[in-house]
Design brief:
Blueprint: E1 3-8, H1 14-20, E2 26-30, H2 39-45, E3 49-53, H3 59-70, H4 76-83, H5 94-110, E4 116-118, E5 134-138, E6 150-153, H6 161-170, E7 175-178, E8 185-186
Parallel strand pairs: 1-2, 1-3, 3-4, 5-6, 5-7
Antiparallel strand pairs: 7-8
Helix pairs in contact: 4-6
Length: about 190
């Protein structure tokens, strides 16, 4: 059985994700738990089960909200990969957008497998680790060691290029590391 967990790169989620994922679970993480970036990889994997875990107080959804509702600017790649899927959707608050994100992505995932379990994680209910203002990239079968850091996970680092842009340009993180080979190297 192939089991996949999809969640956000947020530093507050790593321990929660590790609780949900057994050693065989493939983990995909990016800004906003944006399935659009992973869809081709997921089709190739053909998972039997998908656990989808977006969260509240999401910086990616705040970014989307500010672009659509306040006219903030982002790079063309971030617009295409993240923002564009929400431009014609109705929402009035960040909370509505976060719920919309969960439901839209769940519907996309159900086209891959009907066995999708979605839970919008309320981060106010989590114990927050100390925040590390660094970003680490891992492959789906690897486990992040950096509790408190922002974690990106996919088959190819190119899949999360827009998320690296978000981390650097919108979150202000200068240190991004590729740990996919077992040794973390600065990008």
């Amino acid at each position: 059985m192939v089991r996949v967990l999809i969640s956000c790169m947020d530093y507050r989620l790593t321990e929660e994700i590790q609780k949900e994922a057994d050693s065989n679970t493939l983990i995909f993480r990016n800004a906003g738990a944006n399935v659009k970036e992973f869809i081709e990889r997921l089709k190739e994997i053909k998972p039997d089960e998908i656990i989808y875990l977006p969260h509240t107080d999401c910086a990616a959804m705040k970014l989307v909200f500010n672009v659509i509702k306040k006219g903030d600017k982002v790079s063309n790649e971030v617009e295409e990969k993240l923002v564009s899927q929400f431009t014609n959707k109705k929402f009035d608050s960040l909370e509505e957008l976060e719920r919309l994100n969960a439901s839209l992505n769940e519907e996309i995932l159900k086209q891959i497998t009907p066995n999708v379990k979605t839970r919008l994680i309320d981060v106010s209910q989590l114990k927050w680790p100390n925040k590390i203002t660094k970003v680490y990239f891992y492959k789906p079968n690897q486990r992040a060691k950096e509790i408190g850091a922002y974690i990106l996970q996919s088959t190819l680092i190119e899949d999360v290029h827009a998320d690296i842009i978000i981390a650097r340009e919108n979150l202000g993180f200068k240190e991004v590391y590729d740990c996919s080979t077992g040794e973390c190297k600065s990008l």
